[in-house]
Amino acid sequence: MHTSSPQPRLLVTRAIFPDVVDRLRQHFEVIDNPEDALWTREQMGDRLQGCAAVLTTPSEAIDGELLARSPGLRMCANMAVGYNNLDLPALTARGILATNTPDVLTETTADFGFALLLATARRVTEAERWLRDGHWTKWRYDTLLGRDVHGSTLGILGMGRIGQAIARRGAHGFGMRVIYHNRSQLDAATEQACGARYVSRETLLREADHLVLVLPYSAGTHHSIGMAELRQMKPGASLINIARGGIVDDAALARALREGVIAAAGLDVFEGEPQVHPDLLTLDNVVLSPHIASASEATRRAMANLAADNLIAFFTRGEALTPLNPEVLTR
Ligand code: DGY
């Protein structure tokens, strides 16, 4: 008599597309969370018991303490390109494969970065609030004057795939002068394709009219932008954060926006999200969105499917499409 070996158990920590969960059920015994309940760490630890794999979103922290409680875990597939929610050294030390979802979200996230930049510079959400509140009684030459995007200087801090996609939009779509700062300078061909020039961090802060943050979050990038950096920027500049909360000191930013140190900000990510610093909520010169830069239907689907593909590839063939710690695969 043929007895099939039991399927590995997979914990899907949050609600994702049901058809992707169904696909995973063909390979795993899935414990999912269709109600999208927010589990405590304790509940997460309990559910991880006996699991060989976990599919996480950016909201769940997977750290050494949780891993110590989950001795059977072999893989963590994160449905995001950013993986600051994972303790990668701890995962690697335990021989647990980690994957993320790069590339599939690059253009969508860059589109949204530009949407925030335009909305911030041209005061789009403030204008809509003003109109809905019944203030529009006549055309006036000085109603809601904003700042130009075309022909201005676009600064990009963090020049990975998304930074480069934003640079291309700025240089080739809006005729912007594009400058960037990154841990390392891009090769000349890539710089040329992006229409971007490498500058020091100080020059970037001093010269950008619109500064977009696209760098990964880590202890080293925590509060990369605080009051000292904001004071180096132009009083007419805007700051756009589509990277991670914690890269900007949100309390300092709120103060800078109130005092006119810079003109405006567009924020998709926040320290301690989904909480938003209360001072930011009171300001008109900030555009706020709830961490949706990658949230087009097609892209969120592609992210979920890539996380699933990584899980299936590892458990069926011992491979991964986008590993974060590939050394684990050859151990
Ligand atoms: C990412 O992929 O890191 C995004 O922030 C999630 O939307």
Give a quick precis of the structure.
With 331 residues, the chain is an alpha/beta fold. Helix content is 36%, strand content 14%.
Describe the structure.
There is one protein chain. The chain folds into 2 domains: 9-104 and 297-330, NAD(P)-binding Rossmann-like Domain (Rossmann fold); 106-288, Rossmann fold (3-Layer(aba) Sandwich). The protein has 331 residues and is of the alpha/beta class. The model has no long low-confidence stretch (mean pLDDT 97). The protein has helices at residues 18-25, 41-48, 64-68, 88-93, 106-121, 124-132, 161-173, 188-194, 201-207, 227-232, 250-259, 278-281, 297-317; strands at 9-12, 29-31, 53-56, 75-78, 97-99, 153-157, 177-181, 196-198, 210-213, 238-241, 264-267, 286-288. 41% of the residues are buried. It is built from 13 helices and 12 strands. The structure holds (2R)-2,3-dihydroxypropanoic acid. The site of (2R)-2,3-dihydroxypropanoic acid (DGY) has 6 residues, from loops.
Level-1 CATH class name of the largest domain: Alpha Beta
Tell me which oligomeric state these chains represent. single chain
- Given as residue ranges, the uncertain stretches (5+ residues, pLDDT < 50) are none
CATH-defined superfamily of the largest domain:
NAD(P)-binding Rossmann-like Domain
What's the architecture of the largest domain in CATH terms? 3-Layer(aba) Sandwich
* Broad structural category: alpha/beta
In helices, the fraction of residues equals 25-40%
Small-molecule binders: (2R)-2,3-dihydroxypropanoic acid
* Radius of gyration, CA atoms, in whole angstroms: 22 Å
How many helices? The count is 13
| Sheet with most strands: strand arrangement | 8-7-6-9-10-11-12
**Tally of discrete structural domains:** 2
Number of strands: 12
The CATH topology annotation of the largest domain reads as Rossmann fold
